[in-house]
Amino acid sequence: MLSAYFRLLRAGYVLAREGALSMISAKDLPPALAPLRAGLWLGRLIERPSVRKTGRVERLNKALNKLGPTYVKFGQTLATRPDVVGAGIANDLAGLQDRMDPFDPTLVPAILKAALEDKADELTELSAPIAAASIAQVHQAKLRPADGLPKAVAVKILRPGVAARFMSDIESFYVAARLADRLSASTKRLRPIEVVQTLDRSAQLELDLRLEAAAISEMAENIKDDTGFVIPSVSWDHVAQNVLTTSWVDGIPIRDHAALDAVGVDRKALASNLLQSFLRHAIRDGFFHADMHPGNLFADPRTGDVIAVDFGIMGRINRKERRFLADILYGFITRDYRMVAERHFEIGYVPKDQSVDDFALAIRSIGEPLHGRTASDISMARVLGQLFAITDLFDMQTRPELVLLQKSMVLVEGVARALDPHLDIWTVAEPVVGDWLRKEAGPIGQIETLGEHLKVMAEAAGRVPVILAQAELALADYHANKHRHNDGLMRVMMLGLMGIAGVTLLALLWRITVFSGW
């Protein structure tokens, strides 16, 4: 535990020293975070003189790389938001996406042999690392299976020792979360411990490449009838916990705007396709790529399709959360701020003791200035500051299960903004969101909703025999140990349990009829 505190202090010192705190505007912080303002002032006292003098943050990339893989992930997200951190810092942090120093390539053959055994021999002509990130690096190779034709593949290999580094970082984050939870009442509502638990779970999944292979397989099934979004296929014979082999995909890095323009790729259409694809995966499928930074995205120069790689971090949301997301987006699109407010109350974002009308007014104050404005006209730093002030004013609670979704939306919007600075987010989102909501309101959506409620009722009904069996055991035990004159009481209890079971089933049936509109 002491080592975790030391790592946290070291990380704070390094980030402050390299100018990370200069990215946060103290004036945009709400009054409830006054202590943080003081902390920012103190932290900036140890900044490098060059940062204080010029305002340029030039070494943050190396600092995050030195601190560990989870800090690198944070930097990758910031790299997509020049509207928040500034163009210079974002450009510097872009190197964290796939241009980090690779590990020793002489270790690769032994890693492959240990992981794949004899199947490793089928991977030939292994290239030098073509991309290296915080978790793994990728090599191009030729797959020569004994029973098939040779083909080009991508071989992803985890960095040796990366799991231990990840766990050390996460332990430090837990320490920071517990401190924040204890020391600041205003951060309790943000549920920092639960947020770190979500990130912890995500990190552990990312460190097993067999799960990434399964994620690619599931997404391939979901999008098999879609156009405009392409992913690689898995070579299952060449997958292990620390090795993933997929088909090779050719494309232009989505951040290389000059190369996209040179071959005539329509960047406006590409930005629209990217945003709509993400929303389709999240809202329609409830399963989405949760690490869509520019290092993981390419464009097909022939078709203009988006090509995505690196499925180590995936997000999943249930039907209720998908409906919440769709309703919120559609509410902003149609300027129905009352509906946006009501949905926040229904899902538990805002406590029921707050005013729906006042919250709708606060939402309107954010939404109205955004309408009719292109991405280049909007300062997301100010919008985020206003959002945080509102969450504090209405004592809004963080929903840990939506953390990955929110982080992914920030990433995707940032990439789309870079491709098309004049992107009208609401106009682009409407076809996906509106179509899904219309389907939900139609017969098919009602049938699916009814099916879910019937499933809940069936599960509850299946538990009734167990409840009754437990009641019978309790009754038998009572007979063995108590006098007969209390038998009547036990019969009453037995009948009560049966009555509760019956009422439960009736309540579930009522819920089905109400929600189905019968």
From TrEMBL:
Keyword Membrane annotated: yes
Gene Ontology process terms (BP): ubiquinone biosynthetic process
Keyword line: Cell inner membrane, Cell membrane, Membrane, Transmembrane, Transmembrane helix, Ubiquinone biosynthesis
Pathway: Cofactor biosynthesis; ubiquinone biosynthesis [regulation]
InterPro entries linked to this entry: ABC1_dom, Kinase-like_dom_sf, UbiB, UbiB_kinase
Boundaries of every ABC1 atypical kinase-like domain copy: 96-343
TM ranges: 492-512
Signal sequence coordinates: none
Protein family: Belongs to the protein kinase superfamily. ADCK protein kinase family.
Protein name: 2-polyprenylphenol 6-hydroxylase
Species name: Devosia litorisediminis
Gene: ubiB
